[in-house]
Amino acid sequence: MPNVRRLTSLGAAAALAGSLLAAPAAAQSAPPRTPAPHETATPAKTPLAIGHGGAVASVDADASAAGIAVLKRGGNAVDAAVATAAALGVTEPYSSGIGGGGYFVYYNARTHTIRTLDGRETAPRSADQNLFLDHGKPIPFADAVTSGLSVGTPGTPATWDTALRRWGSRSLGQVLGPARKLARDGFTVDDTFRQQTAANEARFRDFPATARLFLPGGRLPVVGSTLKNPDLARTYGELATKGVGSLYTGDVGRDIVRTVRKPPVRPGSSRDVRPGDLTAADLSGYRALGQAPTHTRYRGLDVYGMAPSSSGGTSVAEALNILEKSDVSRLTEKQYLHRYIEASRIAFADRGRWVGDPAYEHVPTRGLTSQRFADSRACLIRDDKALTSPLAPGDPRHPEPCRSADKAAPTTYEGQNTTHLTVADKWGNIVAYTLTIEQTGGSGIVVPGRGFLLNNELTDFSFAPADPAVHDPNLPGPGKRPRSSISPTIVLRHGKPVVALGSPGGATIITTVLQTLVNFLDRGMPLVDAIAAPRASQRNATATELEPALWNSPLRRQLEALGHTFKQNPEIGAATGIQPLPGGRWLAAAEKVRRGGGSARVVQP
């Protein structure tokens, strides 16, 4: 029986709250400073909150506050999720916004059911397998990112509208209110925002609209200053009064198409910014897709996630199923990490061969999430020796123990940014929602006069097959959705929620969600500690990435003795999660340190 049973007891909840209060000062959020007259007050961040009335966890304090404000006014989890996401479009514009897309997972407390929305961006109808090829060879990745060529049809506005119409209780105009105010009045620049701006400074300067917004006065924004976005406030106002049709068939959409087809580059810039071929027909034909979630059973629990076009649900499910027959709670740290790494390696080998947009590819989702297939792959794992990558995939249609279905092919590159939020309301409804514009800063191109960055999601396609002899389901195609790793996940027991969580981080999202789940469900960690624990990420690559705490640990050498190879990654993911507690209370958890720490809030502490 999973250790989560004792985590949800009243005594454990009280102990958890007490442990946070008793923690050393270094582990706590710094007290909010008094803003200068020209600045905007920002709510304090805390990684843990426990209370009644609903909860919100995100990476940003202003965004979490926006969601809480909607809950306090009687909105439900869906209303609050959209409000939080819209606020993140203001304060986390390099990770999310209406120029991007995402995946939305919803738990209905009345029916005890899970529903999902695929709001992934789509390629133009003119796209084909040669989208990122020049004379038969892939163009440089950085050139593809900063271009109109990489921009897919945005899915985020359609996701908000569809979620609100199906499950919400407020209009889009109502829930956009906090974000409009935040964009108009401004938010306080922190270290993370300044660092992300600095990392993008060179390309931001090549687009006048981008530089005007994010490099005020031609300089990097100062930590503690207030950054306003009146153009985005007006754009949100247009969406509020005219609906999302203003983007998909109206003036906002025309501005997007014009920007993609003729990127507004600074005169004199030496940057070669390729145009894209997005059209008004691409925008007007876009739909957020309602679909069934992925589902697997893990130690008596029901684990639900995103089905393709995301590979998150299938990959998390397969890795959990591989670990199912290991008593993970009794393993040493070395044994646990070894098996977790190997389960991740195998799941990525299989996702690379089988997962793409199901409208264009036959994706054996049921097979990939089956225990039978996982058992046929788990036999590859040895306790005395690490597997090597690239590992060949199995065949979920015809599982045979330790048999490969095809040649091995390396995992293609995927950018490591995005943002995630988790929300619950007083009625017990839950949303786990991950949204993105792909790279930090997306394409780098702000739509002039509109205040938001365009995505570079089409670079999530494979530019060319990693091995021409192996079928690649993730090549570009007309109207196709690029494969994603986004993994918003909700776990139920007998129809009642146990935990909901997700993370940003490109392909590391899958391993972050997997490792956090295992830490929480099997290793007995409180949710906030399961999120904070040091991470490893293996994605069918030669080397497994380790955060510094594991890199500098004796565990690294112990695992290297088994044949594992490692490289250091300073930060993997930035998760948030929510857990129900007895008595109608909620526990919201976020990062303690990553991305400057996250913001967990409840309606009534």
From TrEMBL:
Q: Where is this region: Disordered?
A: 26-48, 387-416
Q: Which InterPro entries match?
A: GGT_bact, GGT_lsub, GGT_peptidase, GGT_ssub_C, Ntn_hydrolases_N
**Reactions catalysed:** an S-substituted glutathione + H2O = an S-substituted L-cysteinylglycine + L-glutamate; an N-terminal (5-L-glutamyl)-[peptide] + an alpha-amino acid = 5-L-glutamyl amino acid + an N-terminal L-alpha-aminoacyl-[peptide]; glutathione + H2O = L-cysteinylglycine + L-glutamate
Q: Which Gene3D superfamilies match?
A: 1.10.246.130, 3.60.20.40
Q: Which EC number(s) does UniProt give?
A: 2.3.2.2, 3.4.19.13
* Keywords per UniProt: Acyltransferase, Glutathione biosynthesis, Hydrolase, Signal, Transferase, Zymogen
Task: Give the matching SUPFAM superfamilies.
Answer: N-terminal nucleophile aminohydrolases (Ntn hydrolases)
A GO biological-process term: glutathione catabolic process
- Sequence ranges of Basic and acidic residues compositional bias: 395-406
Post-translationally, this protein is described as follows, namely: Cleaved by autocatalysis into a large and a small subunit.
Residue positions annotated to bind L-glutamate are: R120, D460, S484, S485, G506
Pfam families according to UniProt: G_glu_transpept
Domain of life from the UniProt record:
Bacteria
Q: Which residues form the active site?
A: T418 (nucleophile)
Whether Acyltransferase counts among this entry's keywords is yes
User: Which family is this sequence assigned to?
Assistant: Belongs to the gamma-glutamyltransferase family.
Q: Could you describe the subunit structure of this protein?
A: This enzyme consists of two polypeptide chains, which are synthesized in precursor form from a single polypeptide.
Query: What protein is this chain from?
Result: Glutathione hydrolase proenzyme
